[in-house]
Design goal:
Elements lengths: L1 E3 L2 E10 L1 H17 L4 E12 L1 H17 L2 E5 L3 H9 L7 E3 L2 H9 L7
Length: 115
Amino acid sequence: MARRGRVIVVFAAGELDYQVADVLHRRVSDAWARTPTNGLVLDLSGLSFCDSRCVGVLVGLLQQSRRQGCGLVLCGLPARLERRLTILGLRAVFQVEPSVERAVEAVSGFSPQDA
């Protein structure tokens, strides 16, 4: 986890399955609670696997960001995860940018009215 100004950037790598998903959710929630922020960028470019629990965590983080009036932007979305989100009808719900830099710019410009 890193900070870029008022944006939290999380890099997820490896397998994000039921064993790891709750840890990710807890750590991000804790970071949000400790630090004033415009929002969160989730860089998923390092993921090799993402199961349905992972998708549930992404949805949960999106809901949390909306409750808190913060932005959530995904970047580096692996093709398999993008396909899964599309099949589930969730792809359009998430803002996705091609790079961390673009995602940070998007979150930096976020206002609570966008939630």
